[in-house]
Every structure is written in structure tokens, then in C-alpha cells.
Amino acid sequence: MPLSPLEKTEILIEALPYIRQFYGKTVVIKYGGHAMTNCDLKRAVMQDVVLMHLVGMRPVIVHGGGPEITGMLKRLGKQSEFVQGQRVTDAETMEIVEMVLVGKINKEIVTNIHRYGGKAIGLCGKDGGLIEAQKQMARVLQEDGSEVDLDLGFVGRVERINPGIIETVIAEGYIPVVAPIGVGPDGESYNINADLVAGELAVALQADKLVLLTDVAGILADRNDPDSLISALEVGRVPELIRRGVIEGGMIPKVNCCIRALEGGVKKTHIIDGRIPHSILLEIFTDTGVGTMVVP
Ligand SMILES: Nc1ncnc2c1ncn2[C@@H]1O[C@H](COP(=O)(O)OP(=O)(O)O)[C@@H](O)[C@H]1O
Ligand SMILES: CC(=O)N[C@@H](CCC(=O)OP(=O)(O)O)C(=O)O
């Protein structure tokens, strides 16, 4: 049943304290997963971000695009290989990663924000020297218990964020949209996991909130039970949950990135369900939690 005009005004008034609370505040959003491929969800995310901006918040988007990169590599006859969730990135793969993330996905997001009435500027880590990167090896445990460092090619880690360009873009009234490509000391490109970039950027901007969208309800105590959502997870419990295998795979970098952000001064961090339409608005403007809040 459609809402009556009175009900509509009530909803707006309910959001008022949250709008006041977050006015002028910086929120870094890691956009990826299902919400990036499903048309309705895509629209909902763009609308959420535009609304946040129009009511005076400072949203900053960091996007992923792993499945699209894998799809493009496949079309070009290249297999994708991952070590600890990181894509092994040879020189040719790096070129394709950069083309897909910066040339395609980043510009699509900017276009979609404009379509829903916002103003955005797309950047990668090379623009304004935003993300300085270093090569990142992967330390893996061998069967005999010893550790070995594997070379993943052009996989990088964030060495330093120079947030000046983001501040400029925000001050000019635009929503920054960041592709997770870093630049090395000799100008070479590095492929960096988008969750890690979002966490480091949130720290550099001293964001009030870091929101990571994903394809599950949040962190589950039992991955086979969707009702076992942990709504608030204290940082101190994380090592034990990882050791017991409760948190594993792609959730490990997410939770570590929240911890890093909290330690670096970000006030709140959330891993939320990107499959729920308008999950970002639900998280920010209502009391309804839509995922896991990682808390100090
Ligand atoms: N305790 C947990 N609760 C929920 N998901 C978990 C948990 N441990 C591991 N996972 C896995 O982590 C995945 C999310 O990481 P990932 O696939 O990298 O996300 P995204 O593509 O959204 O960046 C989930 O789909 C799930 O398979
Ligand atoms: C090093 C590394 O693995 N980089 C990622 C970058 C994109 C990303 O992080 O995308 P999602 O957030 O959609 O996974 C990759 O090549 O897939």
C-alpha cells in the first residue's frame, strides 16, 4: 500500500537527527559485490550516495570490480589465479586490471551518479599522487610448517595516501570515486585490494565512518546459518574467530581493514549487506542495523 503524505513526512522527520549528526561528516564506502552487478541495487546505491551528498555529508566511494576483471581476462584467454584472496598480477594482467577498473568501472560509476542527480569525479591512485604503493609479497605457510614469500607480480600495498586531491574534489562539490590502483616509486601501476584501499583512505581522511558493502548479511557466527549475524563485533574477539576458522577467506581482509581503520582514528566501521536495497541509507539514517559493526 502506498504511504500517505503524513507517513512520508514522518519518515523524513525520523531521519532528521541522523542528518544533523552526520552533516559535514566524511563517510568512505567500499562499493563492490552484488550491488555492483545487479541493476536495481546499482541504482539504489547511487541514489543513497547522491542523497547523502545532498544532505551535507561527504561520501567518498572506493570501488572494486574483481568479477569484471576475471570476466575480461577470460575473454582474452587468461586464467585468474588468487593467493590469499589477491589476484596474481603479471604485467599483461596489470594492464587489463587498470583498463577495467579505471577505464570502465570507474567511469560507469561516475556516469551513474550523474544520472541520479549527483556530481562525481573519478580518480585512481595515480591522480594527484593519491595512492603511493609498494610491491606486496604473500607470506604462505608450507606443509612442513615453514613460511615462504610468494611473488604475486604487480600486487601492491598502500605505502602512503596523499589525500589532497580528494579534499579538493570534495571542496568543489563533487563526490570522489576511487579505483584501487596505486603508483610505485618509478611510476609503475600496482593492483591493490579495494577493501585495503578503502581502509587506508578512511584513515587518511580521518573519516567518521567506513562502510564496506558485501554479498552476505555481515559477519556470521555460523556461515551456514544466515540468522547468526554478529551485529557488533569487538576487535579483541577477531583473532580467536580467525583462528577457529569462523572468519575466513574474503572476510579476513574486510575485518582487518576495519581494525586498521579504527586504530587509525576512524570512528565507526561497518560491514553491511549490499544485497539489501538502500542498505547504506538504512545504516546511516535509521536505527536498523544491516550488518556487522566492528567496534574497538
Ligand atoms: N564469518 C563469516 N561470515 C560471513 N561471511 C564470511 C565469513 N567468513 C568468510 N566469509 C566469506 O567472505 C565472503 C565476503 O568476502 P568477499 O567475497 O571477498 O567479498 P566482496 O566480493 O563483497 O568484497 C563471503 O561471501 C563469505 O563467503
Ligand atoms: C590484488 C587484487 O586482488 N586486486 C583486486 C582489485 C579489485 C577488487 O578488490 O575488487 P573486489 O572488491 O570486487 O574484490 C583484483 O584484481 O580483483
TrEMBL record:
GO biological process: L-arginine biosynthetic process via ornithine
One term of GO molecular function: acetylglutamate kinase activity
Site (Transition state stabilizer): 30, 254
Task of the protein: Catalyzes the ATP-dependent phosphorylation of N-acetyl-L-glutamate.
Top EC class for this record: transferase
Catalytic activity entry: N-acetyl-L-glutamate + ATP = N-acetyl-L-glutamyl 5-phosphate + ADP
Family: Belongs to the acetylglutamate kinase family. ArgB subfamily.
Main location: cytoplasm
Cellular component aspect of the GO annotation: cytoplasm
Keywords from the UniProt entry: Amino-acid biosynthesis, Arginine biosynthesis, ATP-binding, Cytoplasm, Kinase, Nucleotide-binding, Transferase
Domain Aspartate/glutamate/uridylate kinase: 25-273
UniProt organism field: Neomoorella humiferrea
Residues noted as binding substrate in the record, renumbered to the chain: 65-66, 87, 191
Pathway as given in its UniProt record: Amino-acid biosynthesis; L-arginine biosynthesis; N(2)-acetyl-L-ornithine from L-glutamate: step 2/4
Enzyme Commission code: 2.7.2.8
Listed name of the protein: Acetylglutamate kinase
Subcellular location: Cytoplasm
